[in-house]
Amino acid sequence: MIITTTKGEMDDSLLEKREGSIDNDIELTTWVEYYHEGELVHRSAHVTLKTSPFTNLVAASMA
Amino acid sequence: MTATHNFGTSPIRAASTADTFKAALYVTTATVNAATTVYSSTNEVSGTGYTAGGITVTNATAPSSTNTSATAGVGYWTPSGNLVYSTVTLTTAFDTVLIYNSSQSNAAVSVHTFGAQTITAGTFTLTMPTNTTTSALLRLSTT
Asked: How far apart are CA B65 and CA B79, in angstroms?
């Protein structure tokens, strides 16, 4: 698989892959990192929000 | 949800179309919270692939409500697509997204926080919850 990195497109066979996640009351987050010779060259993250702690609908009304 | 912020098309206003909403990311040192009333570029993230002001929120679904004139209920709305910042490099940690109404003087709609993230030549995705009375991104109870 080809990965977009800071050094251009690279085959994942050349990279070390690390993954992680966090799951709490606020979010479910996963991330993936690729390293080339010990250097971080790609990091993506995906966050699923579970709550809306600060919602401010100014002067809104129901439809 | 269809007054100041027009997520749908039913209100009678000068414009009969839904407003345009955008989503901007902020670094961890930013003060963006319930007191925020308008979009600001102060402490907004910056980096390769990211445009100041953020991305446009996909809004193909008008808000829903369960209340009637006689009974309480819930008004709710969720963007119809995930918020996706593709092929960006954001090296300063960020933890906040502000959704704001770019059709109404950039008025703030909602602020959402999450664990601090950085992105390196990658994609940051905020996956939207299911659009229901109990899980929608924006929910307003009526009495």
From this structure: 15
Overall domain count for chain A: 1
Instruction: State the residue range of the domain holding A7.
Output: 2-49
Please report the sign of the dihedral spanned by the C-alpha atoms of residue B94, residue B129, residue B17, residue B110.
negative
Q: What ipTM goes with this model?
A: 0.83
Chain A residues with beta carbon closer than 8 angstroms to that of B101 = none
Distance, in Å, from the CA atom of B102 to the CA atom of B135, rounded to the nearest integer, reads: 25
A41 has a chain B CB within 8 A of its CB: yes
**Which residues from chain B sit within 8 angstroms of residue A59, using beta carbons?**
3-4
Q: pLDDT digits over B70-111, tens only?
A: 777 788 888 889 999 999 999 999 999 999 999 989 999 999
CA distance B50 to chain A (A): 14
